[in-house]
Design brief:
Blueprint lengths: L2 H11 L3 E8 L8 E8 L5 E11 L1 H7 L19 E8 L11 E4 L2 E3 L5 H4 L11 E2 L19 E5 L4 E2 L6 H4 L5 H11 L7 E5 L3 H12 L3 E6 L5 H7 L3 E4 L13 E6 L8 H4 L2 E9 L11 H5 L4 E4 L5 H14 L5 E4 L4 H9 L6 E5 L5
Parallel strand pairs: 10-11, 10-13, 11-12, 13-14, 14-15, 16-17
Antiparallel strand pairs: 1-2, 3-4, 3-8, 3-17, 4-5, 5-9, 6-7
Helix pairs in contact: 5-6
Bound molecules: NADP nicotinamide-adenine-dinucleotide phosphate (NAP) and zinc ion.
Length: about 375
Amino acid sequence: MTDAAQQTAIERQKPQTFPAKAFAAQSKTSTMAPFTVQRRSPRPEDVQIQILYCGICHSDLHQVRNEWEGVMPTVYPCVPGHEIVGRVVKTGSAVKKYKEGDVVAVRCMVDSDRTCANCRAGEEEFCESMPTFTYNGPDKFLGGVTYGGYSESIVVDEEFVLRVSDKTNLAGTAPLVCAGITTYSPLRHWKAGKGQKVGIVGLGGLGHMGVKFAKAFGANVVLFTTSPNKTADALRLGADEVVISKNPDEFKKHANTFNFILDTVSAEHDLSIYLSLLKMDGTMTLVGAPNKPAPVSAFSLIFGRRSLAGSAIGGIRQTQEMLDFCADKGITADIEMIKIQEVDKAYERLLKNDVKYRFVIDMASLK
Ligand code: NAP
Ligand code: ZN
């Protein structure tokens, strides 16, 4: 089918829509400003959600400024936001799991092909045809791209919606569906726990959740930070030790001692210095996604048969497991609540490593 024919086919099947207030970037240099998006009216399997809170992930900033141009170029206008907590206001006729009034969450994916081997294994974050991202992904129903959670509402297939306990702090729960699961999943996969020495690199949104989870799983946790003023917080959040990474002397005593290191850093930095801290057969996993490739010395992997790996978010099943684990253990993110009009200021503070430890937008401010 030609592009034009495909577009016509989409047009023909276009469901009814309704307008929703949002905040968008119009270009990589513009500030965030009011914008109206069209949401599809719920299909039989859809849930319509009134968004109460949306966390600000550093990925929002990378995407808004088109820093991942080579991998995921940004289509403007761009409405970011994939740490969504809200209330169900409408359900389609075939929805089984949710009813009006339920508190739910939506993370960074709203669909996948559901048929590939990875989807069938419950790992739809690795969908072989790429999951549909909550924003800046091709919109299968309306054409164009998807719009994220910096908005008053969103409509999502129930299979991609998560249940949230209404007994938890809802604003502090929003970051769990990205910062939380992105650290929970690799820590579980590489079996961080009792008797293991685990390093977390960077104390931002992801890093502070990584510290909380590694501690909750029973590991001995060392936090690496470029910000000496975060030391007391890191210890309070659960780190057993803090290393100021600007001071290479502090690294020496940790050489060859770590079972696992989780790197959450959002900007260019040296990986080899961390690899040298791994024990034999240890693994360092990247979840931080700087725009530029990082050089790695082969010798830092060869000696000690070390592994360098990556991890993306987590599957829907594991995300629900993580939310239930957090509700049970009383774990939420440490947040700074902001109004939606303050998003640009929040982005500037992210770039200065000045977030304690996740900004969350109170959507009531979107008038
Ligand atoms: P964030 O809140 O801004 O935290 C990043 C932290 O990295 C900073 O607070 C800082 O911690 C450290 N850092 C920043 N620049 C650095 C530099 N040049 N050298 C060393 N350390 C530096 O960001 P976030 O929301 O946690 O996201 C972190 C990264 O993960 C982003 O790239 C984001 O896109 C990515 N991400 C990936 C996934 C995935 O599925 N893999 C999911 C979500 C986000 P200190 O002050 O402690 O040094
Ligand atoms: Zn995110």
